[in-house]
Amino acid sequence: MASNLRIGHGYDVHRLVEGRRCIIGGVDIPHSKGLLGHSDADVLAHALADAILGACRGGDIGKLFPDTDPAYAGADSLKLLAAVMEHARSLGYELVDADCTIACQEPKIGPHREAMRENLARAIGCPVENIGVKATTTEKLGWEGEGEGIGAWSVCLLERCS
To answer: How many angstroms separate the CA atoms of 72 and 94, rounded?
Structure first.
């Protein structure tokens, strides 16, 4: 029996470097380093976009927005996320729920969590209660804990509506 529900998982990583802004979940967080990438390198928006694409079997964010295309240099990742959700809708899917985790020692995510949830929900076009965001420090272990980069994971549930 075919189900109208699809689950997706996304994962993204970006290196922390000097001279870049630190944009996570659409929030420009004051920090001594920022995320390196072709776009604005919003690791959280990228992970959620990949989860949505995974659920609708659309590949990954690089398939739709290749980092070799100059059109996406410095792109606003919330706009890319909105385009991903529009793609999912064009296939007949709607987001039911999403849960995301950010792994970094710094910057502190807690003060920005609600703004991130609101930004992601606005980009997707869903109620904010359908988006979860949490963080872990990794207790100073690994590249996240050593401040070399930031990772994000996301899972989502889509429902076929048409």
So the answer is: 25
Give the chain's largest Cα–Cα span.
53
The confidence score (pLDDT) of residue 67 equals 87
- 75-85 pLDDT, tens digit per residue, is 999 999 999 99
pLDDT at 19: 96
The residues near 85 (Cβ < 8 Å, ≥ 6 apart) are 52, 95, 123, 124, 125
Prediction pTM value: 0.96
Q: Give the H/E segment covering residue 7.
A: strand 5-17
DSSP-derived secondary structure for 15-72: EEETTS-EEETTEEE--S-EE-SSS---HHHHHHHHHHHHHTT---HHHHS-TT-GGG
Contact criterion met (CB below 8 Å) for 23 and 77:
yes
Burial label for 87, CB within 10 Å (0-12, 13-18, 19+), is: middle
Q: How many CB atoms lie within 10 A of CB 138?
A: 15
For residue 135, the surrounding DSSP H or E stretch is strand 131-136
